[in-house]
Amino acid sequence: MKGIIVSALVLASVPAFAQVRGRVIYGADDRLDLYQTQNAQLRSLADSTVALMHSYAVKTEGGVSRLTTTPYGSGMGLCKEEPFYSQVTAAFCSGSLVAPDVVMTAGHCVTSESACADTKFVFGFAVQEKGKMPLAVPTKEVYGCKKLLGREQVNDGADWALIKLDRPAAGHAALKLNLTGAITNKTPLVVIGHPAGLPTKIAGGATVRDAAPSGYFVANLDTYGGNSGSAVFNATTGLVEGILVRGETDYVYRGSCRVSNVCANEGCGGEHVTKISSVSGRLPGIMHRDRAAEISPSLAALMRSLGADGEARP
After folding, report:
1. Which domain holds residue 133?
2. Would residue 78 be called left, alpha or beta, if left means φ above 0 and alpha means ψ between -120 and 50 degrees?
3. Is the pTM of this model over 0.70?
4. 115 inside domain
5. Is residue 311 in some structural domain?
6. Tens digits of per-residue pLDDT, 80-124?
7. Does some domain include residue 220?
8. Separation of alpha carbons 50 and 192, rounded Å
9. Is 60 exceeded by the pLDDT of residue 39?
10. Exposed, middle or buried: residue 147 (CB in 10 Å: 0-12, 13-18, 19+)?
11. Which residues make beta-bridge pairs with 161?
12. CATH label of the domain that carries residue 198
């Protein structure tokens, strides 16, 4: 894991996560905005993911909550040809709904009760229509932290946190997890979250590279800082296999601006994903009453949508 080196000017304009945890593009850039897929199962999975935002960045005015955003391209000092250059950022981490009122994320995203209290969990921070940025969401889609249920943060190991929301998440289904804990090399993967704090991105075309490490596995996911806490799904079963937590440097300089760091699919160090088995034992009892029902339908259509060859397809 290499640190990100950027100018003081750029650092002043981006969330703290970008200074700490990097990610990288492996092979082709497989990231899709929500509007770019009509796959119902993908959209359903995305509907159960959340953006973590600082409380001061969410301004509630009656039934609408306005989001404090930063221009992505200029704010990050990127070259103008960089994908999503004209979009905005607002999230500092990602998460997923694993029980009606419980969100799962990375441990380094929520480090204490006070940090949890200062975080808003926002559903629907996504580009639903080309060119239309999500500068606000319905207030009903914004949740607070009632309690930090537990967390763990081990360098080169498991990294997770469970947060009890201030109320059940209405209209959003809890995701299904691979409670067997088994994960093998070459398992096809999809990640959904907020790379660099951007609106929801869906990225497939990835696989498990090394399932052997204790507490985590290594994959070639197209992820960035801000994806920390993202749910990583088995692209065949739709079950959550883990939580995106660490990876390579996001960007490299090309002259005076920056572009995404690109590695071969088997190159660089890979992205680290906390195994769901590291956290499933700490989930509330509601997650264990229906263990036999935790197998979702096949997502063959999902693979066709994302491209089994790693090429994203709208």
Report:
1. 8-306
2. beta
3. yes
4. yes
5. no
6. 999 999 999 999 999 999 999 999 999 999 999 999 999 999 999
7. yes
8. 9
9. yes
10. middle
11. 105, 151
12. 2.40.10.120
Backbone region of residue 153 per phi and psi (left: phi > 0; alpha: psi in -120 to 50; beta: other values): beta
Q: Which of 236, 192, 242, 239 is nearest to 216 (CA)?
A: 242
pLDDT on residue 297: 40
**pLDDT tens digits, 137-160:** 999 999 999 999 999 999 889 999
- C-alpha closest to that of 286 among 175, 182, 186, 205: 175
Write down the pLDDT at residue 125: 98
What is the chain's mean pLDDT, rounded? Answer: 83
Q: Is 3 part of any domain? A: no
Q: Are 159 and 274 in contact (CB under 8 A)?
A: yes
CA distances from 46 to 12, 103, 190, 238 (A): 30, 14, 11, 11
Contact 166, 144 (CB under 8 A): yes
Q: 181, 173 in Cβ contact below 8 A?
A: no
pLDDT of residue 2: 25
